[in-house]
Amino acid sequence: MTADAATKFDPSRAAEYERQSRIALAGYDACHDLAACMLAASLGAGSTATILVAGAGGTGNEIVAAGGLEPSWTFVAVDPSEPMLDLAMSRVTAAGLAERTQAILGTIADLAADRLYDAATLIGVLHHLPGREAKQAILHDIALRLKRGAPFVLAGNHHAYASQPLMMAAWAERWRMNGATADEVRAKLGKILQGADPPESEEAVAALLLEAGFEKPQRFFSSLFWGAWITRRT
After folding, report:
1. Which sequence ranges are marked TM in the entry (predicted)?
2. For the domain that residue 217 is a member of, what is the CATH number?
């Protein structure tokens, strides 16, 4: 996430993030669990590795899931939003993983380019970055900080929202299922349409990754607009 994109995740937004994210993404915990499993399958069970967690702010679930699965993994959690990073680290601490996690307030571009990581994740971030250039930049910055062949998990929304009216309607029903009124649903969907810029297709996601220095990705999870992929640094 860039510093500009982080400004919308103020303390009030951070406080509601955990509940909202689990409603917006059906299968939130399953996606994070599978991401940890895909990384373990790629690196090898019982491996020793340092994982770069880009845009780590929020629930810290990628660290909690992966840290619980692999006791010899350590994590570098990077996010430019202090409230969101604090929230993530509170979850990480509650899970007993604080000693294995280094928190860095900033962007991936702020990290030293000569330290290379064994794997990386970017979950729930790409669709918050406006325009193709910003998306390309963060993926390129991550690729530069990974060892050759290192696995990378990317997850987030794709498809232009307005291009998929049935999925938008199902998304509205998802909020209604969790107690939102008709007015609240309209407000949430309006905010989504104005506040995010997802890649327009799965092919667009693959093109971004290939241009940034990654292999063709393999999708391992899908939920309405959301997709999760694994790839490797070329």
Report:
1. none
2. 3.40.50.150
Q: Is the pTM of this model over 0.85?
A: yes
Domain annotation covers residue 123: yes
Containing H/E element for 52?
Answer: strand 49-54
Strands 119-123, 49-54: parallel, antiparallel or unpaired by DSSP?
parallel
Among 58, 220, 59, 38, which residue's Cα sits nearest to residue 120?
Answer: 38
Distances, alpha carbon 141 to alpha carbons 89, 111, 137, 185, 209, in Å: 23, 9, 6, 36, 12
In a domain, 141, yes or no: yes
> How many domains is the chain built from?
1
With respect to residue 217, please indicate whether it lies within any of the assigned structural domains. yes
Q: What is the mean pLDDT of each run of 10 residues along the chain (234 residues)?
A: 51 67 92 98 97 94 98 98 94 97 97 96 95 97 98 96 92 94 91 86 97 98 97 98
